Amino acid sequence: MSQSPLVIERQSAVLRLRFNRPEVLNALDVQLAQCLREVFREIAVDPDVRVVVLSGSGRAFMAGGDLNALRADPVGAATRLIEPMHEAIRLISELPQPVIASVQGVAAGAGLSLLLAADLVVAAEEARFNFAYTDIGTCCDGGASWSLPRAVGLRQALSIALLGEGFSAAEALQMGMLTRVVPQAALDEAVSDMARRLASREPHALAHLKRLMRGASQHSLAEQLEAEHAAFVDCARRPEFVAAIDGFYARRSARVQGVAK
Asked: In whole angstroms, how large is the CA radius of gyration of the chain?
C-alpha cells in the first residue's frame, strides 16, 4: 500500500495537515493536490474543526511542483495539477476556520503560493523562500499573483516574481509575508500555542473577522461598514457573546484583586 502524500492528524479542535513527500522536498504532485482539495472540502462543513495547520515533512515546507510529471506531459500535467490545487486555495480563503502555515526549510513555487493563501504564517529562522516559477520558464499558479501583491505591495511583489531571487525568513517577515519568525527548535510549540489560542476563541467571531478582512479590498468604505454592522449584530445575538463579556469582567476582576493583594 502506497504511503499517503498528506498526513492528517486531529488534535481536539485543531486539524494538522502535513505534506508527506519528504524524499522530493514535498513537491506538489497531482495526488497531493487532490488530497488537499478533498480534505478542505470536508473541513468546510465540519464545525468541530476550529483551526487548520499546514506543514511539511522532513527538510522542507514545499519546494514547488512535480517537475518530472510536468516535463513528461507539460500541458496535461499542468492542468491535472492546477485544477485541484486552485480549488484548495479557494477553499482556504473561504473557510470559516483560521489556517496557519508552519514553515521550515524551503518554500518555493507552489509552496510559496500555499503559505501566502494561509491566514497566519509562522516560519523557522532557517527557512528560505523563492518565487521560483521563472526558473522553469513559466509564470505562476496557486493564486500567487493575487496574494503576493496584497501581502508585500505591488513593487515588492514584482521584484520577487520577476527577479526570482531567494530570500530569508527575516526578509520575508520584514516584507509582510510572515506573521512570526522563531528558532527552528521552537517552531512546533509556537504553532501549537497559536493554534490553541485560536481554538479557544469564539469560532463564529473568527469566521466573520476572516471574511471581513479578506473581502475588504473589494468593497467601498460604506459597503465595508455595512458588512461590519451586520457581522457584529450576528455575533451579538448569540449567547456566546454575553458569556464572553461576563468572562472578560471575571478575568479583569481577578487581575485587579491579584494586584491588590
From this structure: 20
Dihedral angle, C-alpha 184, 207, 240, 197, nearest 10 °: 0
Backbone angles phi, psi at 192, to 5 degrees: -60, -40
d(CA 85, CA 36): 7
Q: What is the pLDDT of residues 161-179, one digit of tens each?
A: 999 999 999 999 999 999 9
Give all domains of the chain, ordered by start, each with its CATH number. 6-199 (3.90.226.10), 203-260 (1.10.12)
User: Could you tell me the pLDDT band of residue 259, with boundaries at 50, 70 and 90?
Assistant: low
What grid cell was written down for 10?
Answer: 486531529
Torsion of CA 198, 201, 203, 208, to 10 degrees: -90
DSSP 13-58: TEEEEEE--GGGTT-B-HHHHHHHHHHHHHHTT-TT--EEEEEEST
